[in-house]
Every structure is written in structure tokens, then in C-alpha cells.
Amino acid sequence: MVISFFLPTTFFCIMLSGFQGKTVEVGRAHFETENTRFTILDAPGHKSYVPNMISGASQADVGVLVISARKGEFETGYEKGGQTREHVQLAKTLGVSKLVVVVNKMDDHTVNWSKERYDEIESKMTPFLKLSGYNAKKDVHFLPISGLIGSNMASKVDSKLCSWWDGPSLFEVLDTIEIPPRDPKGPVRMPIIDKYKDMGTVVMGKIESGTIQENDNLLLMPNKAHVKVLAIYRDENKSRRAGPGENVRVKLSGVEEEDILAGFVLSSAVNPVHVVYEFNAQLQILELLDNAIFTAGYKAILHIHSIVEDSEIVELIEEIDVKKKKDADPKKKKSKRRPLFVKNGAVVVCRIQVNNLICIENFSDFPQLGRFTLRTEGKTIAVGKVVALPPPGCSIFAS
């Protein structure tokens, strides 16, 4: 089994780090247990680098949310507008279905492995996790650790340090997490997160669907380049094939490195990924900037798999009344309510347009290529999913 997980924190600075000890880029590392091979995607926790965190989370199956047990530090991240809240919401939106909440710094002299402090943090986090869409009993695991001395990480914490904890260690939790299955026989979908030259053209990414083998003939979209797979690398090891869920490097012929951008998708030639200028989406508005109105003409930065693209709301199609929808009689047809604008908390179906061709899919077909966030001025203002694409052969809807 292969699992990728991300750490939206500054705790694990595995590969690339920036000033003041903060992780800036998404670092990568690997380790294995008896049952599982893990790829660590170390994502930045600082609010200035949320787009980098989005890049890491979009490739992950499991999120490890590291929270400080120190007085004041947890509260700062958890308060309205804090990074802990935004990271949880983004993780769920980006398809991170399982979350491990690690309460760190339990050895700090102000905490001293206090069960009361641990319970306080868990009791405050749980309701918010439920509101964000997580099943707190099935999808979330809480546990205490000390990263500084390595307690309760690879092996269970010593009872002399923490007599009240009888749960598993971090590695034990990670090794038993079940992740949603992907289709190894489906059409190939591998969003490109990076590329470089190394005796040829090499692309990096996570295979979301299908299996890639040496000598496969594929399409690189949206530029429709016919490419051939020369080699596949998992971690540092060469492999003849790789399946869904694996983070890989693929050496290609038929395309130059300078002709590839992050957000391109390595795709089946028979069943290629959709390429569009616009799409219909169901959006949930989280919190708009002060004095902002969400209406046709609203502009924001779209983040979908490894794509970062300027976008504009060109039409509000329908506002969904979530409360009434639950009680609605499916046999009764109701006329759509086409709003002029919507407010915080609204759920709306709208049409979104971008400046450049992008590779996306309907959420119902390929969730990882169909969920996204909208951000403006450094703040996540909406999360959404793709619900309709233009007809085959078209990049825009007919007017």
C-alpha cells in the first residue's frame, strides 16, 4: 500500500526551508513500515505560503495537522481567521479524507503532558472538524507527542512520561489508516507539479487514475503533445510501472521541458482529460473580504490540483437552499432561483471562466481533478467542485 500525507506545519522541515526556520516550498521525503510506503509532503504552515500548502495537500491522502499544546499558541491558530481553521477547511476541500491531529510540545514545561490540556484541545477542535465535513469518529485521530524528544512517534510514549495515554503512536496510526481506493485500470490522469531536464524531460506528479508503464504512449494536455514514457522513478528507484496514488517522476520523449507548465496533465491518449476555458461549479462561500459582493464579474485565484489560474465568475446560475433541500420532495420540480449576488455561507451554482486552457474533470468522475478553492488577497473565500463541463470538442459552453 502507498500513502501520501502532508504536514501543514513548520514542524517537519524535511527538504526545503526558508527564513526563520519556516517551510516555504513543499518538501518531500520517504519512509517505509512493514506494510506501507509513505511519501511525506511537508507543506508550509505560515499564512503567506498557503498556495504552497494547497499544492502539498492536493497530492495527499492523509493530513497530519500538528498543533502546539503551549498556552496561547493553539488559541492563536484556532481563533477566527487562524491558520489551523483554514488548513482544516482546505484539506477537506482538496480531498484529504483522513486527518491525524497531533498535539505537539506536550513535554513543554508549561504543559508537562497534561491530560487536561490535551482534552481541552480535542474538545475544542472536534466540533470544528465536524463542521468542516470530517466524521470525527471515523476520519480523525487525535494523539499527543513530543517532536523534540520523539515521544509517541515511532513507538508508544513511555508511561513514566504520560501515564494516561493508552492509545497508539503516530506511526502506528499512519500504518492502519485506510484510504479510498483508486482505479488502476482507469484512464491515466497525472497532474504535473514540476518538471526538469535530466538527459531528457522529466515530470513529477501523483498518479490519480490508471497505471503508467514504460513505453506507454500518452498525451500531455492541454498542448496535446504525444509523448512516450522512457522511464519511471518511485522515490529514487527505477520501476517498470506505477499505479494510482503513487508520487512519481516520469521521463518522457516527444516534448521539451520548457513547453511544460505546472497544471498540465499526463493523460490517456484514448480517453484524454477535459481541456476548458470555463466550467460550471457548485461553490460554498466561506468568508468574503470586507465590503466585497460575490456576483458576476467577481475575480479570484483558482486553485485546482496543481493549477493556479486567474478566474472570473461570469454567471450565477442558482442559489441552493441547503436547509430546504434536505426536506424537499424530489418529485416536485421547483424553478431555479437565479440570484444577482450571494453572501457568506451561501451555496451557489455558477459559471467560472479562466484566461488560459486548463485540464479539469467533473468531481463525480475524478474528484482530485474536480475540487478547488478560490482565493483573493491571500485569503480563501470559497471552496467548490466542478459539476458541468462544455460538450466534447468545445472549451466553452454554447451561448
TrEMBL record:
Gene Ontology molecular function: any one: GTP binding
Entries under CDD domains matching the protein: eRF3_C_III, eRF3_II
InterPro entries the UniProt entry points to: EFTu-like_2, GTP-eEF1A_C, P-loop_NTPase, T_Tr_GTP-bd_dom, TRAFAC_GTPase_members, Transl_B-barrel_sf, Transl_elong_EF1A/Init_IF2_C
Keywords, in A-Z order: GTP-binding, Methylation, Nucleotide-binding, Signal
One Pfam entry name: GTP_EFTU_D2
Keyword Nucleotide-binding: yes
Signal peptide as annotated in the record: 1-21
Coiled coil, from the record: none
Taxonomy, superkingdom: Eukaryota
Residue intervals of the Tr-type G domain: 1-185
Cross-referenced SUPFAM superfamilies: EF-Tu/eEF-1alpha/eIF2-gamma C-terminal domain, P-loop containing nucleoside triphosphate hydrolases, Translation proteins
PROSITE patterns, alphabetized: G_TR_2
Reported function: This protein promotes the GTP-dependent binding of aminoacyl-tRNA to the A-site of ribosomes during protein biosynthesis.
Family: Belongs to the TRAFAC class translation factor GTPase superfamily. Classic translation factor GTPase family. EF-Tu/EF-1A subfamily.
Protein name, per record: Tr-type G domain-containing protein
Organism listed in the record: Dendrobium thyrsiflorum (Pinecone-like raceme dendrobium)
